[in-house]
């Protein structure tokens, strides 16, 4: 049985009770304990900074040239917190409830309530670090709305919230580096976990510049390596984002939780052709003021400006009047796909819908005209004033759209379409964020824990910082309190020697294939299989085909991939080959998990399981569990189930109408 180690007692007292009773490590002993942190995005940088400040000896690893380049920097719209600054009815309970409901009742209550509890402290921490959150005229922090909620709880810094939060965490991290509490290893990639007597005791890392393999001991290993959306090839993730660290842990015994739960973001710039290697996200914050629509007439080739109001279908407002354009991401994505599949799509590809700011510009313009006493302002003056307000709130996003598409979104509606964005699945962890391998932890997007089958917008930054700043310092101490007498293992320990040899042998095997096809070509083929058969909609027949196709792709990869260059040098193609090999194996497991979960929930939409209105139809009687998969060998996994027990929220059919 999987033990989630959720504390006893009332839900709103569990975390307080845990903190009050967990074991502690005294300051002198902390200096003797070494922690390995893999990844330095929001979760990793905040964890390394917090643990370094507590006095632990921390080694932090990132494959970029600087922690500032972590993919957290790309987050745009904001970070949630239950501070109720707007006095609109928000509370810790409401944030907890919205997150559980938004995840379609497939998340663990204890973890989600803790996340809601610490959310307010995250904002205070970041303000103290100097994060320049947007502010109201009177100086209070500003809030805006995100999908799946009816309150304004999202704090933001224009359209670059992730960048500003990461700079705050990076500053805290670099301070600990300067103080000697954290040692940074840039341009290093973790290629294996070292397990001794059943406990994680370090990693094998590769210096990506020299190609040299290194052994690093740790009393505990924290994986903060992000999500696996690039298994689809085209996604909003940075090109380097990968599953390798988590997958190596999985192959060493860590269970992989809910791998089929992937999020399709509804507001992305549509695919423009086969030449593309990634997609660009347009922040969900744009749904605050933008209205989404398609023509009421099928295959309408008119320009947006030529389609009169009465011939426009604001389909989200029509189908979901209570939430309108701010329904959760999975709901908005499926609705856009349904309209496009039915022949109402726009643009040359017909795989897009409009996101229109004309109404918002006029509304803001009238407010500004009123402020300035311009009682008889012309429509042109009102529009000019409105554009200035929109520019202040969303300007960098509008500029980004124009640079990519060549179209001015102030004058003509943006064209958007859903794209792969976030992965709710990840390494299975308990309440303490520890995997089933003692001493091995997973934080942020690398774990499965807080979002169920769909993540609400602006909750990724919240989870990453909550895990790093406010959860792991307590839970890690609770584990290490029993480990203070363990001496660091020498680098020539047999477990390190064996692990390094396995990594070296795999690299040698890859380099010796000397085939005819590029790594990129295999990644593209995998992505097409995954998007077509395990993307926004899945069915049993397609998933069975995908599993067979991926197994064949794996055979082909290991017999015909071409990797130029040498091992002991800077070799990005070799790095990529390692990652794509892991993606191929993960893709197979994702399809197996999706086939096993014969229900629709959140971002996992099985065509066989839907309501008459086309909404996701859960099967609580048979699937109210976390699917935790154990690796048993090539093409073989064993399913373990963590049953989800809802004590406070009673699951019901989600409705945003």
TrEMBL record:
* Main enzyme class: oxidoreductase
Q: Species name for this entry?
A: Phnomibacter ginsenosidimutans
Reactions catalysed according to its record: a quinone + succinate = fumarate + a quinol
Give the protein's recorded name.
Answer: succinate dehydrogenase
Kindly give the membrane topology term recorded for this protein.
Peripheral membrane protein
Does this UniProt record's set of keywords contain Glycoprotein?
no
Name the EC number(s): 1.3.5.1
Q: Which cofactor does it need?
A: FAD
Where is the protein localized?
Cell membrane
Drop me one GO molecular function for this one: succinate dehydrogenase (quinone) activity
Pfam families hit by this protein? FAD_binding_2 (PF00890), Succ_DH_flav_C (PF02910)
Give the family from UniProt.
Belongs to the FAD-dependent oxidoreductase 2 family. FRD/SDH subfamily.
GO CC terms of this entry? plasma membrane
Whether Calcium counts among this entry's keywords is: no
Domain FAD-dependent oxidoreductase 2 FAD-binding: from-to ranges: 35-461
């Amino acid at each position: 049985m999987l033990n989630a180690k959720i504390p006893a007692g009332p839900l709103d007292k569990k975390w307080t009770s845990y903190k009050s009773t967990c074991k502690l490590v005294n300051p002198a002993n902390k200096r003797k304990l070494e922690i390995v942190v893999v990844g330095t995005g929001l979760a990793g940088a905040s964890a390394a900074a917090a643990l370094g400040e507590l006095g632990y000896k921390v080694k932090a690893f990132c494959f970029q040239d600087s922690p500032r380049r972590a993919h957290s920097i790309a987050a745009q719209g904001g970070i949630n917190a239950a501070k109720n600054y707007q006095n609109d009815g928000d509370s810790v309970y409401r944030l907890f409830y919205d997150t559980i409901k938004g995840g379609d009742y497939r998340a663990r209550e204890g973890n989600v309530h803790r996340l809601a509890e610490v959310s307010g402290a995250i904002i205070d921490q970041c303000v103290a670090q100097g994060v320049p959150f947007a502010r109201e005229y009177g100086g209070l922090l500003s809030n805006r709305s995100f999908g799946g909620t009816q309150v304004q709880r999202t704090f933001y810094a224009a359209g670059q919230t992730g960048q500003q939060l990461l700079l705050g965490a990076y500053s805290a991290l670099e301070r600990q580096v300067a103080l000697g509490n954290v040692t940074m290893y840039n341009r290093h990639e973790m290629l294996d976990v070292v397990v001794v007597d059943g406990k994680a005791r370090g990693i094998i890392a590769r210096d990506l510049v020299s190609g040299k393999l290194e052994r690093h001991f740790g009393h505990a290993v924290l994986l903060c390596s992000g999500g696996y959306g690039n298994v689809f090839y085209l996604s909003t993730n940075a090109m380097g984002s990968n599953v390798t660290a988590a997958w190596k842990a999985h192959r060493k015994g860590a269970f992989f939780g809910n791998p089929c739960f992937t999020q399709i973001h509804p507001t992305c710039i549509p695919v423009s052709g086969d030449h593309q290697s990634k997609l660009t996200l347009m922040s969900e914050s744009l749904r605050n003021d933008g209205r989404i629509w398609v023509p009421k007439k099928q295959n309408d080739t008119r320009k947006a400006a030529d389609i009169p109001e009465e011939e426009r279908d604001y389909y989200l407002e029509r189908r979901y009047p209570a939430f309108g354009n701010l329904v959760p991401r999975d709901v908005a994505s499926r609705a856009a796909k349904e309209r496009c599949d039915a022949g109402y799509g726009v643009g040359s590809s017909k795989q897009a819908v409009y996101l229109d700011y004309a109404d918002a510009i006029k509304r803001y313009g009238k407010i500004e005209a009123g402020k300035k006493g311009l009682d008889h302002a012309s429509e042109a003056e009102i529009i000019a004033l409105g554009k200035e307000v929109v520019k202040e709130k969303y300007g960098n996003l509008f500029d980004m759209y124009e640079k990519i598409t060549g179209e001015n979104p102030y004058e003509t509606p943006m064209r958007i379409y859903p794209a792969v964005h976030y992965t709710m699945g990840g390494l299975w962890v308990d309440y303490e964020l520890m995997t089933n391998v003692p001493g091995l932890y997973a934080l942020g997007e690398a774990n499965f824990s807080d979002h169920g089958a769909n993540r609400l917008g602006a909750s990724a930054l919240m989870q990453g910082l909550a895990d790093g700043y406010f959860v792991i310092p307590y839970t890690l101490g609770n584990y290490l309190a029993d480990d203070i007498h363990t001496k660091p293992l020498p680098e020539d320990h047999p477990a390190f020697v064996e692990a390094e040899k396995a990594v070296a042998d795999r690299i040698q095997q890859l380099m010796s294939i000397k085939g005819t096809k590029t790594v990129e070509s295999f990644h593209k083929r995998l992505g097409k299989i995954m998007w077509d058969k395990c993307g926004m909609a899945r069915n049993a027949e397609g998933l069975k085909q995908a599993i067979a196709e991926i197994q064949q792709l794996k055979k082909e990869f290991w017999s015909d991939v071409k990797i130029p260059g040498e091992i002991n040098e800077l070799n990005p193609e070799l790095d990529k080959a390692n990652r794509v090999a892991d993606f191929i194996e993960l893709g197979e497991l994702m399809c197996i998990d999706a086939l096993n979960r014969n229900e629709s929930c959140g971002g996992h939409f099985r065509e066989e399981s839907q309501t008459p209105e086309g909404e996701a139809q859960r099967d609580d009687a048979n699937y109210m569990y976390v699917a935790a998969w154990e690796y048993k060998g090539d093409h073989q996994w064993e399913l373990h189930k963590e049953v989800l027990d809802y004590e406070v929220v009673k699951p019901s059919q989600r409705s945003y109408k």
